[in-house]
Amino acid sequence: MTPLDDLDRALLSALRENGREPVAGLARRLGVSRATVNSRLERLLASGTVVGFSVRVRDELDPLAIRAISLIEVEGRATDQVIGQLKGLAEIRALHTTNGAWDLVAELGAENLADFDKVLGKIRSIPGVVNSETSLLLSSVLR
Predict the structure, then answer these.
(1) What is the pLDDT of residue 63?
(2) What does pLDDT average to over the chain?
């Protein structure tokens, strides 16, 4: 994979802000030609650096309005089995391995507190999960 340069990083940053911005607008913003933006986008897609584009929904209109981060401690060598179980929970939006006291970090979303409570119970009942700590996300100040 080709290392990213300053222009690549600026392009990625602009796309994170507005993934629908026209190439002409990106070119003006970055001070380069449309052809340069097109070739950079093609290269970032071909290399797998950019794996897709998605939509962001305003937090208060999101159907999974209750959002949280759950830190999960796993017993011994059960991490792969726990990950397999967690992948099956629709409320888990993202799952990350980590270092330190916690083994996994899960980003959760639920429609209401009752569903949120249920998903926490499901996580805690997975064999190999020995501890968890969950924090609700109240508002996003940077995305």
Answers:
(1) 56
(2) 90
Calculate the CA dihedral of residues 7, 12, 15, 21 and round it to 10 degrees: 20
Report the pLDDT averaged over residues 69-80.
Answer: 96
Cα separation of 143 and 138, whole Å? 13
Between CA 11 and CA 98 the distance in angstroms is 28
CA–CA gap between residue 16 and residue 45 (Å, rounded) = 15
* Per-residue confidence band for 143, with pLDDT thresholds at 50, 70 and 90: low
Angle between helix 6-17 and helix 23-30 axes, rounded to 10 deg: 130
Give yes or no for residue 59 having a pLDDT over 80: no
Query: Are 104 and 98 a contacting pair, CB within 8 Å?
Result: yes
